[in-house]
Amino acid sequence: MSVTLNDYLVLSTIIFIIGLYGAMKRKNLLMLFFSTEIMLNAVNIGLAAISKFHGDLTGQMFAFFIIAIAASEVAVGLGLLILWYKRHHTIDLDSLQSMKG
Known about the structure:
The chain has a single domain, classed as Helix Hairpins (Orthogonal Bundle). About 75% of the residues lie in helices and about 0% in strands. The chain is built from three helices and no strands. α1 runs antiparallel to α2 and α2 (about 30-55) packs antiparallel against α3 (about 60-90).
């Protein structure tokens, strides 16, 4: 029994839905970052699988660029998260509602 493209796409969809659920339901900024990373990795699985089954490297190159963008997003996001925590002593998303200058 071999793994087909449909199996990879179903796995990618399930992982993306898990990440989307996490992004919608979490109130913690760190968990929001983790959820977006899960969604980006689900897209990478889909792109790499389509690329492999079609014999073209385009999807794998897109996945590589998404990984690079995700790494920079984490670096900037965690920097902002640390700054926010130092100022407000919380990383709860509800505290973002009351921004003061």
